[in-house]
Amino acid sequence: MKPIVMSQWKTLFGGLLATAILAGSVTMAAAADKPVRWKMQSWFPTKIPHVGSQAKDISRKIKSVSGGNIQFKPFEPGALVPPAECFDAVSTGSVDLCWGLSGYYYGKNPALAVFSALPFGPKWPELLAYFYYGGGKEHYDEIYGRNNIKGIVCGGTVAEASGWFRKEIKSAEDFKGMKMRIFGLGAKVMEKLGASAQLLPAGDIFPALELGTIDATEFAMPAVDLKLGFYQVAKHYYFPGWHQPATLYELAINMDKWKGLSETQQAQIEMMCGDNVRQAIAEGEAKQFAAMKEIKNKGVTLHAWSPEMIQVFRDAWKEVVAEETANSAEFKKAYDNYMAFRSEYKLWSDLGYVKE
């Protein structure tokens, strides 16, 4: 081994010094950022796995990645404002940010349903492709921007179950007169089939099911539903969740507060959210089969909808789409763009993957 000559020592030392100066400048820049201490209203009880616990994950991750400079304190549903008031509360700045999903704000703008989950929508790879590279995010940002909100996709759920029912469903006639808790535009599909649909907060579902206030419910994936105890009352569990094949969850942040952050702080939040999406997909896919086995062992029958029933749901969905696009130009714009991307994507999906 040859000895290092003086010129080489100078080069090595100079490089190390430059690296140290650069690292120090980055550290000082981060240290110069004003500390952020935000209150985060969650739509879901944080004790509920996945959908609620992601609020805690987000809080932990952003504190870690920012070295403690950014801290979000999650609050249980209603602790700051009722979740249904999150949109207005974030818009005005009375709440810093909310953890939930844009589909809950359908009443504010029907197009927001497109950016969370739609019946008979795509699986995760295609959904992310559409949102980030198919024009979805641009329209999403435009709608939220008009309302002084910064939205960031920050998690999600994989395919949900279709629902819990007290009795076996033998035909579409069985839905007539049924009272069911169901999210999003899937509720309008069920109403087309004669059901009375309503959206209940997570904590209110089991009592309503137990008391008979509702006859059936859907909420999330098997691993989540298991913890909510629906199996104690309803013994028929149906798949697939045609109404929510994949769902984007988000942070809705007051725009003024977002603009008050440094570029570094904004990047830290966005990168943390990207990591949380990764975790949500991987964890979601990994934990469902064990939960399904446990649910089955509790005396629940797992059912798959017949092709005929899936077609019934699909036909009703087409009616809902026709009405929604006729009633809302904003929804039509979002839905047409969404379907145009899906049509183009089909060439790739049909040929690019081995059919199982």
Describe this structure in words.
This protein is an alpha/beta fold. A six-stranded mixed β-sheet has the order 7-6-8-5-9-11, with helices on both faces. Helix 2 links the parallel strand 1 and strand 2 (70-75). Helix content is 50%, strand content 15%. The protein folds into two domains: 34-159 and 245-287, 3-Layer(aba) Sandwich (D-Maltodextrin-Binding Protein, domain 2); 163-243 and 289-352, 3-Layer(aba) Sandwich (D-Maltodextrin-Binding Protein, domain 2), CATH 3.40.190.10.
Q: Quick gist of this model?
A:
The chain is built from 12 helices and 11 strands.
Q: Tell me about the biggest sheet?
A: 6 strands, mixed
Poorly predicted tracts of residues: 16-26
CATH architecture call of the largest domain: 3-Layer(aba) Sandwich
End-to-end Cα distance, whole Å, is 58 Å
Please, what is the CATH homologous superfamily of the largest domain?
A: Bacterial extracellular solute-binding protein, family 7
Instruction: Write the H/E string, N to C.
Output: HEHEHEHHEEEHEHEHEEHHEHH
Provide the residue-averaged pLDDT.
93
CATH class of the largest domain: Alpha Beta
What is the topology, as strand order, of the major beta sheet?
Answer: 7-6-8-5-9-11
Structural class: alpha/beta
Q: What is the CA-atom radius of gyration, in angstroms? A: 24 Å
CATH topology of the largest domain: D-Maltodextrin-Binding Protein, domain 2
The total count of strands amounts to: 11
The number of helices is 12
Strand fraction = 5-15%
Q: Any idea how many domains?
A: 2
Tell the overall outline.
Answer: globular
Question: Helical content, roughly?
Answer: 40-55%
